[in-house]
Amino acid sequence: MSLASSVLAGERFALARLLSQIENDNPAGREALAELFPYTGQAHLVGVTGAPGTGKSSLVNRLAHHYRHPPTGESPLKVAIVAVDPSSPFTGGAILGDRVRMRDLSGDSGIFIRSMAARGSLGGLAPTTASMVQVFDAAGFEIIMIETVGAGQAEVDIARLAHTTLVVEAPGLGDEIQAIKAGILEIADILVVNKADRPGVENTERALRGMLEMAHPTRRVFKHHGQVETISSSEHALQEDALWMPLVLRTVATQGDGVPELVEAIARHRAHLETTGEMQDRDRARLQAELELLLQQNLVSRWRQGVSNSRYQEILETLIARQISPHQAVNALLDGGQSK
Ligand SMILES: Nc1nc2c(ncn2[C@@H]2O[C@H](COP(=O)(O)OP(=O)(O)O)[C@@H](O)[C@H]2O)c(=O)[nH]1
Ligand SMILES: [Mg+2]
Known about the structure:
The chain is an alpha/beta fold. It is about 50% helix and about 15% strand. A hairpin with a 5-residue loop joins strand 7 (about 220) and strand 8. The protein is globular, with a radius of gyration of 22 Å. The structure holds guanosine-5'-diphosphate and magnesium ion (MG). Magnesium ion (MG) binds near residues 57, 94 and 98.
């Protein structure tokens, strides 16, 4: 039985092995991924991002617990968690801490947790994460949560992988300003004010609402037939066919307060994406972005194989000496050695 079939059959050991192969970007991993790819496209991808210490892991833990143990009448969902934290060393406290907090979830075959702490994984963090998510998706995990530290572009890219992005803030960290800087508010579908048991929660919430108003004073809805409609943020923006206004919700991850409401908001966002057709749009955009990134990587590495290092260095030196411009340098290199 191939590795991919074992993963489809729900074998956890095969799943873990494939995830490692993908992290190492090896050919066997790629082959299995190709076999699995037709089975993807079912899961709800939920990105969870925010500054370190805001409570992302605690919240993800609570959410997972809720999906596994829903209120009576609802069936439990299979949950996968991909925690990406390039800032934490392999044996760092954050990961260990996460393990401890995740303890109550272990032993449950409906949940799988994978941490990626290594910086500079071969293909880059975003493509590797995308591949891992595809594996979980094919393996039948219905909710896939991707936890990233909201810091750099890579993390924003990873957040863009998701259908629904939660941006987690906490009182007293002064992150509100940080959030704008990182452009992270623009990717938020739901803003979570966690640590709502702490003083200053009202201020944080007010600041976030204020910033949302500034970021989305009016929203333009481009209809398919080319007409433009404008909806102000004070209008009811949750109606069908309207754009989603980011929600602001309070939680206390350590106690589980606000978690059922958050789960409901996540489901509501998904329903919104489905009724408006945005689900397909996001899927399309995501796969196109992945394609372009892989194309760029492949073209550059193929081209590098065809040009000698000495030729490359020679052009680079001419560029640094200001004898040619960067554009001219590119032309010279792409011309296969004939400088202009
Ligand atoms: N008081 C309080 N502490 C919390 C809450 N959520 C998380 N914490 C604590 O904040 C610290 C950081 O949490 P963690 O989930 O690791 O944050 P992350 O770095 O964003 O993943 C831990 O000590 C948590 O126990 C909360 O709602 N209230
Ligand atoms: Mg964490």
